[in-house]
Structures are given as C-alpha cells and as structure tokens.
C-alpha cells in the first residue's frame, strides 16, 4: 500500500503546520484512500480520529499514522458501524474528550461489490445504500455540534459511476448519487453557519480495495484509457483533500471535485465486455430477491 512520508511536506506544495490545532474525524480512515487523506492532514499539522468496524485494523492504522509527525495525536476507534448513528456519536464523544474538538470530517466509509441486477438481493442493495448514504448522513449528524461550534468543513467521498450507467453497480451508483445530493443540500443549509461541504469523486485509484473489486479481468489496461495516461494514486486524493480543507478553498462549497485523470469523460470501464457480460448474467432463470 502506498503511504505518505515527510517528503509530502518537504517536497510538496503545501505549507507545514497549515492544519495545526485542528482535528479531522474520518470514517473508513484505515482503508486505502481515506488513510492517505488522514496521513496528509497529520503531516500538515492536524490531529486525527479514524473510526472503523475492525478494531485491530483501525487501532494499528492510527498508531502508524501517528508516527508520521512527532507530537501528532491519532486516535483509532474500532467497533463503529456508520449504519448506527449512536455508535458514531459515542466515537465523537470520545474524540472530543481526548482531542478537544473536531474541525473537519471525511465521510469515507463505503461498501462495494460487483453484482448484476438479477443476482443483487434487496438486502444487498440496502446494505450498500446504508453504508454509503445513510452512513454519510449519520457521520455528519454525529459531528454536527462540533462542526457548528468550530465552523468546520466536510468532505464526502463519492464516485463517478452514477454520471452514466455502469453495469453491476446499480447499488453503488444509487448510493453515491444520494451522497452527492446530500452534499449539495448540506452546502446550502450549513453555509450560513460557516460550514463548507464538498465531495471528492475518485476515479481509478491504483492499489485500492475499490479498484481491485471493480477492474474486470481481461480488459484493456486501465491506464491506457485514462486521458492523463496513468492510474490515480492515493496521493492524488490526499492533495485534493488538503486543498478543500485549506483556507485556499474558503469560498468553495457545494462542489464535486472529480479526481480521475479525466476518465469518466471517456465512458465506463466495461468497454468491450458490454453487452455480452450483461446478457449472460440475466439469462439465469432464478431471480434473487
Ligand atoms: C452479490 C453480495 C455480494 C456479492 C455481499 N452480498 N457480497 N451480493 N454479490 N459479491 C450481499 C449478501 O449476500 C447479503 O445479501 C448482503 O449483500 C449483505 O451482506 P453482508 O455480508 O451481510 O453485509 P455486511 O457485513 O454488512 O457487509 C457489507 C458489504 C461488504 C458491503 C456487503 O462487502 C463490506 O463490508 N464491504 C466493506 C468493504 C468494502 O466494500 N470496501 C470497498 C469500498 S470501495 P443477502 O440477500 O444474501 O442477505 C468503494 C468504491 C466505490 O466503495 C466506488 C468505485 C468507483
């Protein structure tokens, strides 16, 4: 897994300590993309809280991130399921007790798998919508008091696959479209309180769980399809995160920052597999309810 180091500050474009005294709260913070977002914030002076379902994974990641900057405090809270608002509220309470405040929130926890409509059960659809959409709502709900007090900022992690129809992703596309709509509404509602709300929509990011779940075997190497001719790196998402949370973005709210090298403009990743792969799945006479 690619992680960041001190060179992000020494050789990077951002100023050291721009987030000094601030705290970022991140769901899914032990995962591939969100972890590197946290690393960037910590390297630039912030303290952080990462929450997740898996206790060991979350605590281990928090300890490793903490080592990136002397004096950094990174709290890992496991056993938190974003589908349960009370479990996030408890984590928020612990965070404020231990770190004093929350200024920034990244709603990053997500669930995904490829499934055609015929084999996607109602419960499977609900699971992904509950993690991605309801989970994003719950996260902001639980952090709202802190965000209001500290005139904070929010980043939702979305996707680009609902900009057009992507086979086998109806559940994720519906959930992420909801996340974008939630972000737009909250930008308008919370703007007068001093809270900024934006979305980052990552494209094909190399080495991530999402990418390994989605890249269909036997297709053209993905980087050849990307207009900038390379796969995304987690660092690309970290850079966008720093910008959106930094004072440089103080007039930026209600936006969707697509970080995909231009990929969504050239169509979905199923390419030459379409429509045969779809027909095949739909021939199964047994419809999973
Ligand atoms: C069809 C599936 C399935 C699959 C699970 N289900 N996997 N159906 N194909 N491959 C169905 C199950 O059969 C069940 O339905 C329902 O989903 C719930 O499954 P559970 O295992 O009980 O759910 P749960 O433990 O809550 O797990 C949630 C999950 C799981 C989303 C299903 O995959 C998960 O926890 N994922 C978290 C990690 C993750 O996905 N990370 C990737 C994020 S990347 P039935 O009917 O049998 O009860 C990402 C990128 C998005 O999100 C954007 C990409 C561009």
From TrEMBL:
GO molecular function, one term: 2,4-dienoyl-CoA reductase (NADPH) activity
Species of the source: Meyerozyma guilliermondii (strain ATCC 6260 / CBS 566 / DSM 6381 / JCM 1539 / NBRC 10279 / NRRL Y-324) (Yeast)
Keywords: NADP, Oxidoreductase
A Pfam cross-reference name: adh_short_C2
Biological process according to GO: fatty acid catabolic process
Gene3D superfamilies, A to Z: NAD(P)-binding Rossmann-like Domain
Name of the protein: 2,4-dienoyl-CoA reductase [(3E)-enoyl-CoA-producing]
Gene Ontology terms: cellular component: peroxisome
Record lineage: Eukaryota, Fungi, Dikarya, Ascomycota, Saccharomycotina
Source domain of life: Eukaryota
InterPro entries: DECR2-like, NAD(P)-bd_dom_sf, SDR_fam
Residue ranges crossing the lipid bilayer per the database entry: none
């Amino acid at each position: 897994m690619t992680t960041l180091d001190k060179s992000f500050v020494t050789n990077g474009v951002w100023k050291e300590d721009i987030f000094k005294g601030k705290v970022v709260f991140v769901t899914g913070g032990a995962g591939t993309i969100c972890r590197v977002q946290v690393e960037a914030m910590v390297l630039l002076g912030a303290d952080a809280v990462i929450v997740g379902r898996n206790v060991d994974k979350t605590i281990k990641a928090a300890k490793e991130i903490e080592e990136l900057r002397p004096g950094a405090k990174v709290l890992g809270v496991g056993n938190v399921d974003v589908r349960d608002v009370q479990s996030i509220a408890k984590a928020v309470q612990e965070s404020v007790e231990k770190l004093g405040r929350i200024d920034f929130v990244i709603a990053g926890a997500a669930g995904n798998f490829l499934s055609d409509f015929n084999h996607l059960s109602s419960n499977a659809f609900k699971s992904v919508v509950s993690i991605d959409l309801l989970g994003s709502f719950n996260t902001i709900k639980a952090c709202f008091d802190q965000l209001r007090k500290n005139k904070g900022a929010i980043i939702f992690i979305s996707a680009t696959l609902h900009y057009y129809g992507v086979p086998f992703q109806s559940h994720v596309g519906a959930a992420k479209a909801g996340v974008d709509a939630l972000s737009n509404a909250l930008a308008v509602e919370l703007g007068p309180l001093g809270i900024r709300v934006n979305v980052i929509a990552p494209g094909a990011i190399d080495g991530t769980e999402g990418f390994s779940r989605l890249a269909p075997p036997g297709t053209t190497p993905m980087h050849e399809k990307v207009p900038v001719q390379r796969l995304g790196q987690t660092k690309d998402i970290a850079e966008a995160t720093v910008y959106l949370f930094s004072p440089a973005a103080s007039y930026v709210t209600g936006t969707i920052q697509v970080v995909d090298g231009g990929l969504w403009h050239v169509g979905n990743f199923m390419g030459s597999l379409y429509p045969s792969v779809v027909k095949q799945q739909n021939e199964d006479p047994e419809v999973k309810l």
